[in-house]
Amino acid sequence: MDHRRKDLRFWFSAIICLTLAGCGIFPTSKPSIDQSPTTTPTSGGGVVLIDPAGHPCEGVSGTLEIQILVGPSEVVGMTPFSLGEIPFDVLDEDGVYPIEGGGQLESYSDVLSAAWGTYTVTFEGDLVAAGECISTGDVAVLNLSVEMTGEQNIEIVFDGVQTNFPWSGTSQIEATLPVEDGAQQEGEGWILILHLN
Q1: What is the dihedral of CA 68, 72, 77, 81, to 10 degrees?
Q2: Confidence (pTM)
Q3: In angstroms, rounded to a whole number, what is the distance separating the alpha carbons of residues 70 and 113?
């Protein structure tokens, strides 16, 4: 009976220690990344150098999927999206991690036919991604600037009369995405989705 009480007290104490994360079993703070490498002795008498954890932006690469609303098509009930993919890499330039990438938007063409005539949208564009990967602790984010250079034409045929509204120019999208597969951000007329390699 006395033996059972000792066992019960032991398990009760163990449960309290584990649920309160006390008893010196778990470290109370993470080691700093800036610590110098630790040496571990080996049986051969030499040492093995253990490098500290790498920067969370190192080696990050992937694809930015972008969807652009081609307008002003919503006035006739169309919501055409042009899709594109921007392959990108995070470089390492002496502790600074710039983002570099580029790609094309798919050529887009759509026609709305109605009793009054037709409304045709065509669009094509190129994309360049730039910015920087930054981190706080072990969490990294991509501060992105996506520049789109494109050409668009709206052709309206109304009662047999054709009118064109061409546009060409450059627009900019600013976004901040956590370095997590599937992270996304959207703004007026655009959606950006991160796919990591």
Answers
A1: -10
A2: 0.65
A3: 17
8 in helix, strand or coil? Answer: helix
**Which token pair is 98?**
């710039």
Q: What are 170's strand-pairing partners?
A: 149
Q: Break the chain into its structural domains and give their ranges.
A: 2-50, 61-196
Amino acid occupying residue 81: F
Question: What's the full length of the chain, in residues?
Answer: 197
**What is residue 179's three-state secondary structure?**
coil
- The token duo for 93 is 């330039």
CATH architecture of 61-196: Beta Barrel (2.40)
Residue 64: CB atoms within 10 A of its CB come to: 25
Q: Residue 27: is the preceding peptide bond cis (ω within 30°)?
A: no
Q: What is the pLDDT of residues 6-23, one digit of tens each?
A: 443 333 333 333 333 333
How does 7-38 read in b/e, with b if 16+ C-beta sit within 10 Å? eeeeeeeeeeeeeeeeeeeeeeeeeeeeeeee
Q: Which of 57-66, 71-80, 92-101 has the lowest mean pLDDT?
A: 71-80
Instruction: Give CA–CA dist 99/192, Å, rounded.
Output: 15
Task: Spell out where the chain has E strands.
Answer: 38-41, 47-50, 61-69, 81-90, 98-114, 117-136, 139-158, 161-178, 184-187, 190-196
Tell me the two tokens of residue 8. 């019960």
